Amino acid sequence: xxxxxxxxxxxxxxxxxxxxxxxxxxxxxxxxxxxxxxxxxxxxxxxxxxxxxxxxxxxxxxxxxxxxxxxxxxxxxxxxxxxxxxxxxxxxxxxxxxxxxxxxxxxxxxxxxxxxxxxxxxxxxxxxxxxxxxxxxxxxxxxxxxxxxxxxxxxxxxxxxxxxxxxxxxxx
Length: 172
What we know:
Blueprint lengths: L9 H6 L4 H9 L4 E4 L9 H9 L7 E8 L2 E8 L3 E2 L1 H7 L5 E3 L2 H8 L16 E5 L8 E7 L2 E5 L1 H8 L2 E3 L2 E2 L1
Parallel strand pairs: 3-6, 6-9
Antiparallel strand pairs: 1-8, 2-3, 2-5, 4-10, 7-8
């Protein structure tokens, strides 16, 4: 009986510079591009900083926000050029009321720090809603799991890997 070759462990992949998000993308065999930039702690907006640093339209750079919908943490992925519509988010997941989650709880639950929360590779898989505007682009950028690191991939791949619902949850 032939022996299967050992696969590198998650820890080994992460030690080589990957984040849980990039490890998840690699494991899924998804095409993606990593964009690194020097994070400025004084910049007022993580998402706008990423768009500026990469020279990408803010409509193609999406921020990952964690909200509490009727007591359940839910991820919303919306363009950095706009805001999250909490009522629309609640409706998208069949809830009644949504509010932004406590930042410390969001960090503990996802395993990422604020400004670096990725919709991919989270410690605990949460219900995810991707703003419908993502489907207008061939690729979008989301956090790769730390400040100063973005990953570019197709919105279809992001939706598939996160089991996301597509819904109009962003507003200008």
